[in-house]
Amino acid sequence: MTQQPRTWHANEAELRALADGVAGPALGASVESHLMRCGACRARMNDLVDGVLLDSVWSAIRETVEAPRPSVFERLLRKFGVSAESGRLLVAVPAMRGAWLIGATAALLFAGGAALFASGFGLALFLLVAPLVPVMGVAAAYGGDADPSHELVVTTPYSAGRLLLLRTAAVLATSLPVAALVGLALPGPAWLAVAWLIPGLAFVSLSLAAAPFVGATVSSGAVAATWSAIAIAVSKIGDPMDLAGPAVQVGSLVLCAAAVTTILTHFRLFDLPRGQT
Amino acid sequence: MADCDSTDADLINAMSEHDEAALRLLYGRHAAWVSARLRRRCADTDVVADVLQDTFVAAWNGAGKFRGDGDVAAWLWGIAIRRLISRLRQASGRAAKAPTWKLYDAVDVSAEETALLTVEYSDLGTALARLSPELRVVLQATVLDGLTTREAARALNIPQGTVKTRLVRARTRLREELA
Predict the structure, then answer these.
(1) Which residues in chain A have their CB less than 8 angstroms from residue B49's CB?
(2) What SS3 state is found at A244?
(3) Helices in B17-157 by DSSP H: which ranges?
(4) Residues B94-138: pLDDT tens digits?
(5) Tell me, what's the ipTM?
(6) Is pLDDT at A96 greater than 70 in this prediction?
(7) pLDDT at B166 over 90
(8) How far from A96 is each of A14, A85, A90, CA to CA, in Å?
């Protein structure tokens, strides 16, 4: 190797040795520490390093940087260990969108308000509406027509059963706190605020269990209609408080257990194309 | 607006305001030497490409946190070396007791290299070449790559106390050589 006159800068051979990875530990360390202080020599490295690699890495960087940033909520989910794919699917649940939340809150506030002015009938109305809010959320999430991301969900390479549970969790996470808050604001015993919880869970699991057979919209509609009929009948004949009474609670618990068992034993059915999709 | 005359710190500033052209310029100035330094530490081109990408994406996302008085090259290298270490550690698997990766090779300096250094470099290069490999890797990790003693201890898989004593010994040795 011919020696070039020593200047303030690293010479071509030294830089090339570094770029090619053939510089030994002492030479490498010397050139590296010089590079950290010398912009001119850093610039000369550009001609010595594999340009194809640099170009392909740049296009990858540009893609990452230009990709839309995940929403605050999505990043929060990711912090809690939810994978990026699951996070995106959760955020796409209609129940996660403002419009749904506003609708659910409005319905509950209406029922809650009615309870304030006409205690007997209003209370029945609240106890009628509150357990149905999560059911409607589930229907909207799986009904197809109500879900703009429906096409995406159908074609997603993801177990439909897992997806269903994931999205149900999202529905419950958004509708339960709203209903609980409105319930707390109502007159009457505080346990009323949670009295609809077990019926609510029972109705959700019932709608889900029936969804593979008749479709989510039909199953949740049938559940909602049945519960409404029972609720109206009970409040007409007897005390609206019976809607939150032990008979309803125990009945709901039994229903819930039966529905969950059906879901677990027929889990594979959720992966089949549903009648409505 | 960022252009070729902007300083590196200006580019980082522009990047913190989402100026993609600034990132392009910064990449053009720094990607080559960063990739060369990564390449010396890791033979796997795919890993080098990944780490290079991670580094500049992290620089883009963290541009707002860059302290204006710092040196951009050192900042970038600080990101790159740490990404490389965590990437290699991941690949080797956390379960493995002994690391299957080696960032710092404790190899002897060849006679040719020593000969080259005596001509080409000041006494420092020669002194560095005369250090025992164990002492030299500690210098490489801490002085050259800017790792903390804690990070160096993890990267070299030796106790932190050993890093400190070797660092002191290396400094004493260098001082003797250069005196």
Answers:
(1) 53, 56-57, 60
(2) helix
(3) 20-41, 45-61, 72-92, 111-120, 123-130, 133-139, 149-156
(4) 544 444 556 776 666 666 666 555 545 556 677 777 888 888 889
(5) 0.84
(6) no
(7) yes
(8) 59, 16, 7
Query: DSSP character for B141?
Result: I
Nearest Cα residue to A252 out of A132, A126, A76:
A132
Determine the Cα–Cα distance for residues B106 and B128; give it in Å rounded to an integer: 13
Please report where in the chains the tokens 């980082």 appear, as a residue.
B12
Question: What is the domain partition of chain A in residue ranges?
Answer: 12-66, 72-271
For residue A27, which residues of chain B lie inside 8 Å, CB to CB? 113, 116-117, 120-121, 125
Q: Do A61 and B56 touch (CB under 8 A)?
A: yes
Positions of E strands within chain A: none
Query: Which residue is associated with the tokens 């560095």?
Result: B128
If one compares B165 and A253, the residue with the highest pLDDT of the two is B165
Query: What is the per-residue pLDDT across A104-136, written as a single tens digit (0 to 9) for each?
Result: 676 677 666 666 655 666 677 777 777 777 777
CATH 1.10.1740.10 holds for B1-96: yes
What is the model's pLDDT at position A4?
Answer: 45
pLDDT of residue A3: 45
Q: Does an H or E element contain A12, and which?
A: helix A12-20
Question: Scanning the structure block, which residue is given the tokens 């205690």?
Answer: A119
Q: Please tell me the distance from the alpha carbon of residue A107 to that of residue A150, in angstroms, as a whole number.
A: 25
CATH 1.10.10.10 fits B104-179, yes or no: yes
Residue B68 in tokens: 């204006």
Domain limits of chain B? 1-96, 104-179
